[in-house]
Amino acid sequence: MLPTLPSSIVPYVPFVLLGLSNVFMTFAWYGHLNYKSAPLWLVVLASWGIAFFEYCLAVPANRIGSSVFTGAELKTIQEVTTLVVFAGFSVLYLKEPFTLNHLVGFVLIALGAAFIFKGPF
Question: Model-level pTM greater than 0.90?
Answer without folding.
Answer: no
